[in-house]
Amino acid sequence: MAKLLMIPGPINFDPEVIRALSKVTVSHVAPEFISIFGDTLRKLRQVFISEGQPFVIAGSGTLAMEMAATNVIQRGEKALVVNNGVFGSRYVDIFKAHGIAVDEIQVEWGKAADPTEVREKLESDDYKVLTVTHVDTSTGIANDIEAIGNVVKDFDTIFIVDAVCSLAGQRLYQDKQHVDICFTGSQKALGVPPGLAILNFNQKALDAHAKLKHPIECFYTSIDNWLPIMQAYERGDPSYFGTPAVNLIYALHESVKQIVSEGMEARFERHEKLAEMMRKGLTEMDFKLVPEDGWAANTMSAVYHNGIADADFRGQLSQEGVIVAGGLGKLKGKIFRIGHMGAINANDVSATLNAIQRTLKMF
Ligand code: PMP
Q: Which residue's alpha carbon is nearest to atom 8 within ligand 1?
C-alpha cells in the first residue's frame, strides 16, 4: 500500500507531474524541449514574484546555496549568516569551505531572527552578503523576510534567502521584499522530484557578480557559464554548457503550470489554512511545537514527542500509513517533523492527524 509521504521534502507529488517525468526523453536542444524550458523560466518569475533572472541547474538545494554564495562573494570579503538551525550552520560551512570570512547571528532554536539585531550587525561591519533561511527545516520556524528585507535595503549588502523549504508555499515576494538572490530545491513546495536547484538573481546580484575583483573560483556553479544558456532557452535558441535534466524539467514545467494556474495568493492561503489545521490538530492531542507562538512555518511543523521514543513513534505511524521525518541536529530523537506543502489537501492533513491518533493509542 502506498503511504502518505509527509516529510519536509520530498513529498507526495501530483500524478500529472510524475507523468511528465516519464515522457520520452528528447534532445536538450530539440525545439519542443527549448520551448518547454523557456516557458518554465518565464513561469518561475511568477513563482519568485520577481523580474529577476531564473536559473535551473541539475543538483540539490545545497548546490543552490553554494551557487548563490560563490557568484557574489570571494575571499577577502565578509559574509553574515542568520543562523536559526541546521541550514544556517550549513551556510557557515559553505563560506568557510571557500575561504570566506563569516560572522553569525545566532538565534535560539525555535525563535525567529530579530530585524533590529540584523540592522545593528550590518552597521557594525562591511558585509558583502547576508544569508537568511526563510523556513529552517530543523526547527520549523519562518523568519520574517519582509522585515529583514526592509533593513537590508538600506545597505549595499546582497540579501540571499534560502527558500528551499518555503518557495511556492510560505508567503514570499522576492522583489517587493528586497531579496537579491532567492533559491529552492525541486523536491519541496514546488512539488517536483529531487534533483533540481532553482535560483533567481535580481539585477543587484548580477551586477555584484560582474564586479567581482578576482576571477571566479568555481566552474559548474559559475553563472558566467549558465546565464547565456538560460537566456538562450528563453529566446528559443539551442545552446549547451552542461546537459540539463530534461525529464525533471518536464516535471518542473508541469508543476509551475499548476502553481501559476492556482495563483500565488490562493496557494499561500491554502498552505496557511492547512498548516493551521495541522497545528490545531496536534495541539489538541497535547503536542508542543518547536517554534515559539506566531513563528511556525506553513510548509512544515516540528513537533516535540509526547514521551514516546522517536523510533517507536515513527515506526508505528508508518504502520498506520504515514511517514514523517525525525529531528535534525541537536533535536534529533526529540522531535518529529511533518511536511505539509505542495499538492497537499485537507484530506492529507486529516489522514495524518488520524494516523497519529491511532498511533498514540498503541502506547
Ligand atoms: N536549505 C533548507 C532550508 C533545507 O530544508 C534543505 C533540505 N532539507 C536544504 C537547504 C538543502 O537541500 P538539499 O537537501 O536538497 O541539498
A: 137
Q: How far is the CA of 26 from the centre of ligand 1 (A)?
A: 29
Looking from the CA of residue 138, the nearest atom of ligand 1 is 5
Contact 70, 223 (CB under 8 A): no
Q: What is the pLDDT of residues 170-206, one digit of tens each?
A: 999 999 999 999 999 999 999 999 999 999 999 999 9
**Torsion angle in degrees (nearest 10) through CA of 151, 157, 163, 164:** -150
Who's near 100: CB < 8 A, 6+ residues apart? 69, 73, 74, 75, 77, 78, 79
Whose CA is closest to 115, among 63, 68, 191, 178? 178
CA dihedral 107, 110, 116, 120 (to 10 degrees): 0
Type of residue found at 196: L
| Cell, residue 143 | 523568519
Atom of ligand 1 at shortest distance to CA of 185?
A: 15
For residues 346-363, b (16+ Cβ closer than 10 Å) or e, as one string?
A: eebbebbbebbeebbeee
Strand 181-185 and strand 158-162: the pairing is parallel
pLDDT band at 237 (very low <50, low <70, confident <90, very high): very high
Beta strands in 45-146 (DSSP E): 53-58, 78-83, 101-106, 129-133, 135-136, 141-142
Helix axes 31-48, 223-235, angle to 10 degrees: 110
Decide whether any atom of ligand 1 lies within 6 Å of the 320 Cβ: no
